[in-house]
Design goal:
Layout lengths: L5 E5 L3 H11 L6 E4 L2 H10 L2 E7 L7 H10 L8 E5 L5 H9 L4 E4 L4 H41 L8 E3 L2 E6 L15 H10 L1
Parallel strand pairs: 1-2, 1-3, 3-4, 4-5
Antiparallel strand pairs: 6-7
Helix pairs in contact: 2-3
């Protein structure tokens, strides 16, 4: 698993960032922080982000806009996202968030124990997924190398004979050469006549 992959915490309030970092510190994962949607996108596109903890309402680029952009880019579309909101239950937000494939929508203030449980599960599952993808790529490369190597080995030449009418000119054996000879037509009927006499 990529050891440098980190959890990125995004919020425009310093006290919230500190509280979230304190809640996640016992997990022992590497943590990163961003204070805006723009900064979050830059860090995500640089790679090594394994999970995003993202505030919904921020000045400039909102959390939902960050997720929309991530889902359009192949390298970021499978990164799990937990959205954070301090504005209480909102059906429209919930529908939009889960429609974008967000893993969870968490209300502030956050319960540290519940957050750690969700983060651990999502982060570890994503790391296992990445490890499996790498193994699949490695196995496909091995199969491709093996197939190419087999294609380059010499195939044994087919046995051939020379045609008496054209000496020196090879011909392939007739496909029926190994078929046992058939009885001439009527042979069986003649044998039956002999048996009767």
């Amino acid at each position: 698993m990529p050891s440098e992959t980190r959890i990125l915490i995004v919020d425009d309030h310093e006290d919230t960032l500190y509280a979230l970092e304190s809640a996640l510190a016992p997990l022992g994962y590497q943590l990163g922080r961003a204070t805006s949607g723009d900064e979050a996108l830059k860090q995500v596109l640089r790679g090594q982000v394994g999970l995003l903890l993202l505030d919904v309402r921020m000045p400039g680029v909102s959390g939902l806009e960050v997720v929309r952009y991530m889902r359009r880019v192949e390298q970021t579309q499978h990164i799990p996202v937990i959205l954070l909101t301090g504005f209480g239950p909102d059906q429209e937000l919930t529908t939009a968030a889960f429609g974008l494939g967000v893993a969870d929508l968490v209300m502030k203030p956050v319960d540290p124990w519940a957050l750690r449980t969700k983060v651990r599960y999502l982060y570890d599952a994503h790391q296992h997924h990445l490890a499996l993808e790498q193994e699949v790529h490695r196995l496909r490369a091995q199969v491709r190398e093996h197939t190419e190597a087999a294609a380059h080995t010499e195939r044994p030449a087919l046995a051939h004979t020379e045609t008496p009418a054209h000496p020196g000119r090879p011909t392939l054996p007739h496909p029926d050469a190994r078929v046992p000879p058939q009885r001439p037509p009527g042979a069986h009927a003649g044998e039956l006549e002999k048996d009767r006499t």
